[in-house]
Design brief:
The complex is a heterodimer of chains A (112) and B (417). Chain A has 112 residues and is of the alpha+beta class. Chain A is built from two helices and six strands; from the N terminus they run E-H-E-E-E-E-H-E. In chain A, the strands form two sheets. A four-stranded antiparallel beta sheet of chain A has the order 2-5-1-6. A two-stranded antiparallel ribbon of chain A has the order 3-4. The chains are: A alpha+beta (112), B mainly alpha (417).
Chain lengths: 112, 417
């Protein structure tokens, strides 16, 4: 079993209250499902859409990601057999409804 | 904890916009809507990972409130906010308490009421008034409003945008406590709510869920009237009583396969007894004062239907009398048609047909499918099946939606058989 990081990227927010409520319910059931299957190691945290990117001592406020579609909105950690399974599970993520996507990254294993 | 499907966001949207509009001024309605949208996005991002808080409504309100404080502090001089709050928003000493007050329960109730009165601006046609209420106070998106009215999205978008322009053009929200136009505007509000409810009750939307939601929303808004002494008139009570009686019967108007079900086929045991009782109580309370409105008469008719155990045991004589009074107040061929149908129940089909023939300006019903359906039903009862079938086919050709079309089609087939 290995751990994988889900980075939730993008997703437009211009939706009606009812659509948002539906989205909320889908997320709840998606995480509920991952948890029930024992795949969810850490549900993670949401991230503010603002921040600073520091590179070469130059501080850039609000990040370099002018494209909101690439912005990381939060993360979770899952435990699965391999990256195929992690990617397969990510296909059920409600973020696609909002035009966003999930980046699946293996968390590096520390070998003794 | 809110249950899925209880429309939390939608419900809170109207309350939040109403409170924020009070702070920002009605000319900043768009800003208020942005703040609500922001609060929802935030809620979504946090809740999807952390789960919903104990009291999601309070969480949303607090988020909107903090954002409002930020904006009012940062842009204190950049915009002119609510004129009636004026100075209070300029000083840090008064800003926080004023904002806190605006988000209190009774203030929000008041603001929703004022927004509702503002939406019923005399410059706007009734349909636009209802569309605005749905959009601003009920949190329906433009497409959802368009779908509720079975109209095109682009047309509805235009209509709502125009309505908001009129709203933003009025200096402030309608004030029930000192405006001289309260009685006149109240009448407009009642008419709009009546139309709003009927959009759900008689509406053509195929899904029962959509229609009952419209009814529920119309009733929720209408009940705000009862919370204000100047709006809680006998007419308002009668209007809500009427809504209760009709809402009680809503689930049986359409059967499980989405087909219209006429009164004589409805399973009366499925009518909502609680709503009927509530309607009766409101109708009792509406009987104060000396004026009788059409809401009183319609509610009284609906109450007689709701109380009757069967079609035959309905007090048709009373219903005819009530329709007579209604006709005197508001001569209308549709009301006259309903009266004729009641006459047909009271005195037999021949009399019903005679009453239909006697309708003044009957030609105005030439496109109304239920006029031909009524002729069909009466001919059918007289055993003149060919004539009945013809009428049902004419009704079908005038049907305004698939649900009506299927119903008249079925009646035409039954008449022939």
């Amino acid at each position: 079993m290995s751990d994988f990081l889900y980075l939730y990227r993008g997703g437009d927010s211009n939706r009606t209250p009812e659509e948002m409520q539906k989205t909320m319910e889908k997320w709840t059931s998606w995480f509920g499902d991952l948890g029930a299957k024992g795949k969810l190691k850490a549900i993670g945290e949401p991230l503010e859409r603002t921040g600073r990117v520091v590179s070469k001592r130059t501080t850039i406020t609000d990040g370099p990601y002018a494209e909101a579609k690439d912005l990381v909105g939060g993360y979770s950690i899952v435990t699965t057999k391999d990256i195929e399974e992690a990617a397969k599970l990510a296909e059920g993520c409600p973020i696609f409804d909002a035009g966003g996507f999930v980046e699946v990254r293996p968390i590096m294993q520390m070998s003794m | 904890m809110a249950e899925p499907g209880d429309h939390l966001f939608r419900r809170e949207a109207g309350r939040m916009v109403a409170a924020l509009t009070r702070l920002f001024g009605v000319h900043n309605l768009a800003l208020a809507e942005d703040v609500v949208q922001d609060a929802f996005v935030r809620a979504l991002e946090v809740w999807k990972l952390h789960g919903m808080p104990e009291n999601p409504s309070a969480w949303l309100m607090a988020t909107a409130k903090n954002r409002a404080l930020d904006i009012l502090r940062r842009e204190r001089t950049a915009r002119i906010y609510a004129p009636e709050l004026g100075r209070l928003l300029e000083s840090e000493w008064t800003l926080a308490p004023v904002v806190a007050e605006a988000f209190g329960e009774s203030a929000i109730r008041d603001d929703q009421l004022r927004m509702m009165f503002s939406c019923c601006h005399p410059q706007l046609p009734e349909v636009a008034q209802v569309a605005l209420m749905l959009n601003i106070l009920c949190g329906f998106g433009v497409s959802e409003v368009a779908s509720a009215f079975l109209s095109k999205r682009a047309a509805m978008e235009k209509r709502i945008a125009r309505g908001k322009k009129v709203l933003a053009g009025s200096k402030r929200l309608f004030d029930l406590s000192d405006d001289r136009d309260v009685p006149e505007r109240l009448q407009a509000v009642q008419r709009a709510l009546y139309l709003f409810f009927n959009e759900g009750y008689h509406g053509a939307h195929a899904e029962l869920a959509v229609r009952s939601e419209l009814c529920v929303e119309a009733m929720r808004l209408a009940e705000l009237l009862l919370a204000h002494p100047r709006a809680a008139t006998p007419e308002s009570h009668a209007l809500i009583a009427l809504m209760c009686f009709n809402a009680a019967r809503l689930p049986t108007r359409v059967d499980a396969s989405g087909n219209l079900s006429p009164l004589y086929e409805q399973d009366r045991t499925l009518w909502d007894a609680l709503l009927i009782a509530k309607g009766e109580a409101l109708l009792d309370r509406s009987a104060t004062g000396d004026s009788v409105s059409e809401f009183h008469l319609e509610a009284a008719i609906a109450s007689l239907h709701a109380r009757a155990p069967t079609m035959e045991e309905t007090s048709w004589p009373m219903i005819v009398t009530l329709y007579d009074t209604l006709l005197m107040m508001h001569p209308s061929p549709v009301v006259a048609l309903n009266r004729a149908i009641a006459v047909g129940q009271r005195d037999g089909a021949e009399s019903g047909l005679a009453a239909i023939e006697a309708i003044a300006d009957v030609e105005r019903l030439a496109e109304y499918p239920f006029y031909f359906a009524a002729l069909g039903e009466l001919e059918q009862r007289l055993g003149r099946t060919d004539a009945a079938r013809e009428h049902f086919l004419t009704a079908k050709s005038r049907a305004r939606n698939p649900m009506e079309r299927r119903f008249f089609e079925r009646r035409a087939v039954e008449a022939a058989g």
